[in-house]
Batch of 3 targets.
Target 1
Amino acid sequence: MVVSKKAMRDSIINAARYIFARFGYRQATMDAIARAARKGKSSIYYYFKNKEEIFLAVVEKEASAVKEEIRNAIASTSDPREKLTIYVLTRMRVFYRIAHFYSSFREEYFREYDFIQRFRENYDRYETKIVLDILREGIKKGIFSIPDPMMTASSIVIALKGFEYLWGTEQDIGKLENKTEGMLEMLYRGILKR
């Protein structure tokens, strides 16, 4: 049976996901990834140049799954206020799940990895566009009154990033959801049309 290049890469990415979850980026090795993938180390290098490239592939796969989950969640309503609430809570729940799966990476999360920073900047632009679209829909429907939607969307994304540490370290998801909903209520009191 011939295995496609994509299937082989996916197999390596899936194995690497568990290695990074267990050891974090710094302590994960190409040897451990090769063992987990049940491949020779030279086979791993055929598909990926280095550990950084594998890690980025893992991050991109997680990001694609996050985007899909968020798209499905916000598609469940046409009300912009509900859509924004669903977006924020879904985004933070997914972050919680990922942060707790990659618990050994949690300590490394706030270190400056240039390659992660570049990925994060692209993801931030993606998030800002989603929030901006929701805000513009709310303005169009007369639900939101926002003088500068782009600045507001950027501010919301920055606020969510500020919540990440809390969501990555706190165990009680109910407490996290209450705090996040409280932040949203403060936001709505400031942007709901009166």
Target 2
Amino acid sequence: MKQLWFVADGQIEMRDSEVPDVGFREVKIKIAYAAMCATDVHIVTMGLMNVRPPAPLGHEASGTIVELGPGTENSGLRVGDKVCLSPSAFCGICPDCKRGQTQYCTNNVIRGAFAEYAVVDVSKVYKIPDDADLMAYCLVEPANCAVRAMDLTEVKHGSTVAISGVGGIGSIVLNMLLLTGATKITAIDPIPAKRKLALDMGAQYTIDPVAEDIEGVADSITDGRGFDYVFEVSGVTVAAEPVLKILARCGTAVYFAVYPRDYKLPLNLYDLYRKEGRIQTVFTTHSLMPRTINLIPRLQTDKIIGKVMPLSDSVESFDLFHKSLYPKIILDCSK
């Protein structure tokens, strides 16, 4: 089968790999679609998550079950079921797993979903509706991270919110914010097409951080108060500091993105103290996946998905990702 691999620092390669056998508690899935994520790119460019080559890539996917291994009899899953998945497995025995924080498992094993098939532990396979659009449901895993953000931040109805970065995950977070009852939703992005996308999705205002004074426009939108919540979703270091400058008193700054491992945020603790401001980061938790599956029909996936490419062009998809032309790039793993 075709499969994309992280082969050396900064290098990826399409390989012919053996279709993996199914072991105890494992499920074999014919992958339909897999979505590009900044995490995949950062694994290759920054060694994120301590992943070292050679390693398969891809973790946002959907497909159809083609084989069930022993130990899956009571899972409720059947051959032919449409599913979404997280192609990794937690061990259940490390200290983090025993605390119920399996997302931090120190023995996590990544299987990779930029492939024609994936074999995944049954605990990371989630059934979706029989009539599900598999392309839309490959967004369950990234949308799950956005649900985690909504849970952690507890955005209140009527609160003012700004979001910095309307790329792949940014457009999903924006969609979630539109469902929360937030107001004066403002998208900050230097790319005109992405500001237009934000308005098309339902944002009320946009700011061009290159051509406009972010603080001045934010003051105009919020009557000088600042935003109750500011989500930084771009992962661009120059975008990280303005978040704190446009934050309202008692506001929450949410750093959602992945930044370079050696980046240190300039922070004036006195200013933050005067505001009683809070800083929140977001990772994920897979126990939310059933809730996220329920939300997919309410996402504007026709706008969030910007480009569909064949799996055979996955090396080129990484180059395209760096151009920031599209919100979410999807790989069609049947081609």
Target 3
Amino acid sequence: MKIPIVNEKDEVIAYKEREETTREDIRRIVGLNVFNEKGEVLIAKRHSIKVIDPNKWGPAVAGTVDEGHDYDSTVIKEAEEEIGLKNIKPIFLKKMFYETHNTRRFTGVYYAVINSRETKLSLQVDEVSEIKWISISELEDWFKEKPEDFIPSFYRTMENVKEISTILKI
């Protein structure tokens, strides 16, 4: 499946196979921050076979927007595929642009609140090796002490988690 390549205004300018993209190509991705009834946030550990950032912790759900999809449909699809989260209505927070040493991306940032006692999650084993519910303060402390445990852009995830926690008053 091809992925859309966009310009600096997030307008589609081409479609490429994922393997054919370069660092200069701007991709679209989504991130979903999941919270539970206790105010904890769900984080996911990327599988060891992942090409980018294997064995690193990141948001509960993240994925690339494929041809024929948009941010909204992708976040719902990825939530079900990666952690088995079905029938959710994710709330759009914002769209951000960022660059790392190996990529340039527009990210659609979303959040959802679920009842973790009643929601069964199941991992897509080739994507996610582990998930963990954690309090925001514990996550902040862990990230400060061992940032190498997390994807390079996790500081943005922490900013989003804090922003969402203010919205949710947790």
